[in-house]
Every structure is written in C-alpha cells, then in structure tokens.
C-alpha cells in the first residue's frame, strides 16, 4: 500500500502529458508499445490483473462495462523483438529506411498541427526511389505511406490501445481508445484517497502512525475500521 501512496504522490505532481513517466519512473521505455505494456503490468501488480473498464456508446450514450486481463494484454502489446532496429520497406518504386517512433517522436507530433505527417517524417531515416534518387518523405504517394503505417503497426502493436465494442442497447459498434496512463492514475488516485481516509480514522481512534496503519493486513485494517464505525 505504501507503493500506491508513493506512486499517487509522484504522479499527481506531474503534468498529464508526463504522467506515464511519473508512473513508470526511470525504467520507462522509449517505445510507446512497451510503455503501455509496462503500465498494464504495473496495474496488475498494484491492483490486480482483472481491470473493469467503462465506455459510453457514441450513438445512444448507454454505459457499457467490460473487463480485461492486464497480464494477457500486456503480453500482447509487447513490441516485436527487432522493433528497435532500422527496417527497410520497398513499395511502388520506393525504398524507405525507417524506425519505430519513440516517446519523443510521439510528443513532438502531438505538439504539431499535423500529427500523422510529422510522426511519419520523424520515423523515416532514408527515402529514395528504386533508381537511387533521394526523395522527400512528404512527397511519398499514399500507397507507400499506407504500407509504412502498416509496417510500423506490426512492429508496435500496442502503440495505440483500443477495444472493439458493441452496444447492448442499440447494437452500434465502435472502437474505444484507452489511455493506459490516465486510467491507471485514476485508479491509483482513488485507492490512495481511500487509504488516507482509513489512516485518518485509525490514527484518530488509536493514535497509530501512518506506517503502523498501513502495516496492517487489509483484513485486519477492515476489522478495526468496523470497530471504530468508519467502514
């Protein structure tokens, strides 16, 4: 439980855009896919592998609840073993040397006014036609940029996390995105605030310190809270 409070304190002081850095600490990987996998693994360690999520139907507004297995999803989101290498794509008379984007690339693209082209250009290390004549990344035809996007997605399957959902009320189907860092921080904050309420109640009743209260098992802490009428 000390881990939850320390994580809440550290992440709460960070800007929303840097919350994943605060949650993962110095071990935060550069790969967005690996970051999302690490956030899900952290959630499993702190709060359990089964996570309940909610989404609102964009068509009728009905609330939908579903659960995910954080451990299984974290394994599925891991980037390919060679994701960090420079890769080559040959398509429609072009040769492209590219790499997967890191967190700095994603943030730079997000700060721009043209997200997708900026991200694509940052990933391209070399761009030329089959005859060896260099070309600008911005001049690539849609067929080549589409092929490059597919290649990047195959290397980084967890760069974007979303779920295909179907509304039980109106049968509408949509893809619901998940911000792994924001969702985890919301859960950590809620758990930390509940813990502080418990610490406050038992400290007032028995004069115990925060460390003493948190050292109790959840079962014993709940029993004491019932005794003092705080549960």
Summarize the structure.
The protein is α+β, with helices and mostly antiparallel strands and 231 residues long. 50% of the residues lie in helices and 18% in strands. Strand 1 and strand 2 form a beta hairpin.
**Which structural category do the helix and sheet elements fall into?**
alpha+beta
Biggest sheet layout: 3 strands, antiparallel
The total tally of domains equals 2
H/E topology pattern: HHHEEHEEHHEHEEHHH
Residue stretches low in confidence (pLDDT < 50, at least 5 long) are none
What fraction strand? 15-25%
Describe the secondary-structure layout.
Layout (H helix, E strand, L loop, with lengths): L1 H11 L6 H6 L7 H16 L2 E7 L6 E7 H8 L9 E5 L2 E5 L4 H8 L4 H9 E6 L12 H14 L5 E6 L6 E6 L1 H27 L3 H6 L2 H10 L4
Antiparallel strand pairs: 1-2, 3-4, 4-5, 6-7
In words, what does this structure look like?
- By secondary structure, this protein is α+β, with helices and mostly antiparallel strands.
- It folds into 2 domains: 138 residues, no CATH class; 69 residues, no CATH class.
- The strands form 3 sheets. A 3-stranded antiparallel sheet has the order 3-4-5. Strands 1-2 form a two-stranded antiparallel sheet. Strands 6-7 form a two-stranded antiparallel sheet.
- Strand 6 and strand 7 form a beta hairpin.
- It is elongated, with a radius of gyration of 23 Å.
- The model has no long low-confidence stretch (mean pLDDT 92).
Summary keywords:
50% helix, alpha+beta, two-stranded antiparallel ribbon, 10 helices, 231 residues
């Amino acid at each position: 439980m000390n881990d939850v409070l320390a994580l809440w304190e550290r992440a709460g002081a960070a800007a929303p855009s840097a919350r994943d850095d605060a949650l993962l600490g110095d071990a935060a990987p550069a790969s967005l896919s690996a970051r999302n996998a690490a956030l899900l693994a952290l959630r499993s360690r702190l709060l359990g592998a089964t996570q309940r999520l909610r989404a609102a139907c964009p068509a009728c507004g009905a609330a939908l609840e579903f659960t995910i297995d954080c451990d299984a999803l974290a394994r599925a989101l891991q980037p390919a073993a060679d994701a960090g290498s420079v890769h080559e794509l040959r398509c429609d008379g072009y040769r492209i040397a590219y790499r997967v984007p890191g967190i700095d690339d994603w943030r730079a693209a997000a700060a721009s006014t043209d997200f997708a082209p900026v991200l694509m250009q940052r990933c391209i290390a070399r761009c030329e036609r089959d005859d060896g004549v260099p070309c600008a990344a911005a001049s690539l035809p849609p067929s080549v940029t589409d092929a490059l996007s597919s290649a990047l997605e195959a290397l980084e399957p967890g760069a974007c996390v979303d779920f295909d959902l179907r509304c039980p009320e109106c049968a509408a189907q949509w893809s619901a995105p998940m911000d792994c860092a924001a969702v985890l921080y919301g859960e950590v904050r809620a758990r930390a605030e509940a813990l502080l309420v418990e610490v406050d109640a038992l400290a007032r009743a028995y004069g115990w310190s925060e460390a003493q209260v948190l050292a109790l098992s959840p079962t014993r802490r709940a029993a004491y809270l019932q005794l003092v009428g705080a549960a």
